[in-house]
Design a protein that fits this description.
Blueprint: E1 2-3, H1 9-20, E2 28-29, H2 33-39, H3 55-58, E3 68-81, E4 95-97, H4 99-110, E5 130-144, E6 149-160, E7 165-166, H5 172-188
Helix pairs in contact: 4-5
Length: 214
């Protein structure tokens, strides 16, 4: 962790802009049971919004220099793709998959009976047949502002290394790795039965009838 007092003025300005200058702050506030007990039931301090989320309530004099900043940076190989169009107005956004995630997507396409929520009435989802290869860099920023307040953000940057290519035309070693993952997933689900799915009831099957009293 880097204390704010070790940052230069330009870096402090960036963090200050994030915390104080927006129409609403992205700051997260975590309260403990002791905090709620101290506030009491008659307190008008709204824990969900309002003053409870106001940055100047937690930092009335701005940053003190004792706040701590941690940054984590990682780069992972990914496959980027979106479902094929199925002739509707629905447009699915691009998703990033690792090797196991791509295999899982292909298995769900292979066994739609086990994942009925993927194709809701009027909301069909096409198959994922093409992907672009590349990397995704993820930068995680965590600023500990006070005992209760923090700023947590994730930035992602995608770098494509190929145009769209059919999954069955990927390099042989990649196809083999996908198939190896598919074999494991199929084994895990080999005895699974299609779930009871009631989208109107929030996906929860109706309860069984009460036992007879006779």
């Amino acid at each position: 962790p880097i204390p704010f007092r070790a940052l230069n003025p330009a870096q402090i300005e960036i963090l200050s802009h994030q915390v104080f200058d927006g129409s609403y702050t992205p700051m997260q506030v975590t309260y403990q049971d002791t905090d709620l007990a101290e506030m009491g039931t008659d307190d008008n301090f709204d824990l969900g919004s309002g003053l409870a989320q106001e940055a100047t309530e937690h930092l009335p004099n701005g940053f003190t220099g004792r706040e701590l900043l941690t940054i984590a940076d990682s780069i992972d190989t990914k496959f980027f793709g979106r479902p094929d169009s199925v002739g509707t107005d629905i447009r699915w956004g691009e998703s990033a998959y690792d090797m196991q995630g791509l295999a899982n997507e292909l298995f769900q396409q292979e066994r739609p009976d086990l994942f009925p929520w993927r194709n809701q009435p009027g909301n069909p989802r096409g198959s994922l047949t093409k992907v672009r290869t590349g990397t995704e860099r993820q930068v995680t920023i965590l600023a500990r502002l006070t005992e209760r307040a923090s700023l947590h953000q994730q930035l992602r940057d995608r770098n494509y290394t190929s145009d769209q290519i059919a999954i069955d035309k990927l390099a042989p070693d990649i196809r083999k790795a996908i198939q190896d993952n598919l074999v494991k997933i199929r084994e895990r689900y080999k005895n699974a039965k299609p779930p009871a799915w009631d989208p109107m009831g929030g996906g929860v099957p109706p309860p069984p009838p009460p036992p007879s009293r006779r």
